[in-house]
């Protein structure tokens, strides 16, 4: 399996992994974290989801048309920050939303000062091969007993960031004298901007450009058509974000839509001046799950969110606190891709150019199940 970093950021992202996806649906064909290629895919060393593109697209289609978590709305394309099953450890955070934890622990030993903030599971480079900060927390006896005194105390934060990896800092809310902090960590570019190359303005624009082509899959299902196109171009049918954006884009292309202004469709979907796709929750693009809040960056971008972790969370999940962020919050911290108003695009469907042009709605990205 080729795990080289691609020349185009969005293409062919591969990963380590810790949990095998459902073996009956996604058969062997993986890589071992310790020894490279491993066709047996045993234990907890399996790769990111792999298998027939049609099977992966069926999974992503089920995500996109979940009645309570629809990916396609009149104003947004949406998906949660949660990685799909099978993406774990060093590769978590591929959905234009990276996440990690920051903990402020009690003193390691009685009479000592508390340690500085522990940044747990933060991605460190352009892809999985750069690893993360320490993924686990080693608790001493004194730390355990102190945390047990008040299990409900908030002692850590999950951080969800959609700040694009190619969008430089500083944030407007920082000045020479002050900057927002999370558990003692300054909200600066180095600490809170996404790291993966696939999580960038350029990558999102390239995805839109790549998917603005005529379809050759032969399927009448709009979502599957876009998903299979993305699989052919980028080999990322396992990702919610790529499949959703490509499915919406191919419909815009089939309906011969162009941006009414000077921007291209790629720039309209992922404007170069935007810090990143805004975060929200399923029920409210400006809301968040209970226990979560936006970190004000001074630009209203809604690209950094923190969510409470208690002493009990730290005690129970010290071996994988980032994983606790995933299970407790990531399904309901949602990436929102703002889509244009109807008067901001111009469409001229031509059935001679596309066999799917005769079914173009007013908002072509508003796919139906």
Model description:
This protein is of the alpha+beta class. The chain has a domain at 91-197 and 285-324. The chain has nine helices and 14 strands. The chain has a five-stranded antiparallel sheet with strand order 5-4-6-12-11. A hairpin with a 3-residue loop joins strand 1 (30-32) and strand 2 (36-38). Helix 4 packs across helix 6 (240-254) and helix 5 (222-234) crosses helix 6. It starts with 29 loop residues before the first strand and ends in a 22-residue tail after the last strand.
Question: Would you summarize the structure shown here?
Answer:
This protein has 9 helices and 14 strands. With 369 residues, the protein is an alpha+beta fold.
Total strands: the figure is: 14
Q: Low-confidence stretches at least 5 residues in length (pLDDT < 50)?
A: 1-46
| Radius of gyration using CA atoms only | 21 Å
The largest β sheet comes out as: 5 strands, antiparallel
Question: Structural class from helices and strands?
Answer: alpha+beta
**Portion in helices:** 10-25%
The overall average pLDDT, rounded, is 86
Shape: elongated
How far apart are the first and last residues' alpha carbons, in Å? 33 Å
Strand order, sheet with most strands = 5-4-6-12-11
The total of helices stands at: 9
β-sheet strand percentage = 5-15%
The arrangement of helices and strands along the chain is EEHEEEHEEEHHHHEHEEEHHEE
């Amino acid at each position: 399996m080729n795990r080289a970093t691609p020349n185009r950021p969005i293409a062919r992202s591969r990963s380590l992994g810790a949990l095998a996806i459902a073996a009956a649906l996604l058969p062997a064909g993986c890589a071992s974290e310790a020894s490279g290629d491993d066709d047996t895919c045993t234990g907890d060393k399996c790769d990111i989801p792999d298998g027939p593109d049609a099977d992966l697209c069926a999974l992503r289609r089920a995500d996109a048309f979940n009645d309570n978590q629809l990916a396609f709305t009149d104003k947004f394309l949406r998906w949660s920050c949660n990685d799909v099953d099978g993406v774990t450890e060093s590769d978590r955070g591929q959905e234009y939303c990276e996440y990690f934890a920051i903990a402020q622990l009690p003193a390691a030993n009685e009479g000592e000062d508390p340690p500085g903030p522990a940044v747990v599971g933060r991605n460190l480079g352009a892809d999985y091969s750069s690893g993360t900060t320490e993924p686990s927390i080693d608790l001493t006896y004194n730390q355990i007993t102190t945390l047990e005194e008040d299990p409900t105390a908030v002692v850590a934060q999950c951080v969800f960031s959609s700040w694009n990896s190619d969008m430089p800092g500083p944030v407007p809310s920082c000045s020479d004298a002050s900057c927002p902090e999370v558990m003692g960590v300054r909200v600066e570019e180095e600490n809170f901007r996404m790291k993966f190359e696939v999580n960038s303005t350029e990558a999102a624009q390239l995805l839109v450009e790549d998917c603005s082509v005529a379809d050759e899959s032969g399927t009448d299902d709009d979502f599957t058509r876009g998903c299979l196109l993305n699989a052919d171009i980028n080999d990322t049918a396992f990702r919610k974000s790529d499949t959703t954006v490509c499915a919406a884009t191919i419909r815009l292309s089939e309906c011969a839509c162009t941006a009414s202004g000077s921007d291209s469709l790629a720039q309209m979907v992922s404007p170069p001046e935007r810090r990143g796709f805004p975060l929200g929750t399923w029920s409210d693009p400006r809301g968040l799950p209970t226990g979560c809040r936006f970190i004000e960056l001074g630009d209203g971008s809604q690209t950094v969110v923190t969510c409470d972790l208690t002493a009990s969370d730290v005690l129970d999940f010290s071996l994988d606190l980032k994983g606790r962020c995933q299970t407790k919050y990531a399904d309901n911290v949602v990436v929102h891709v703002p889509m244009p108003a109807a008067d901001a695009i111009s469409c001229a469907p031509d059935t001679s150019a596309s066999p799917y042009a005769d079914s173009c709605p007013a908002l072509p990205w508003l796919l139906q199940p």
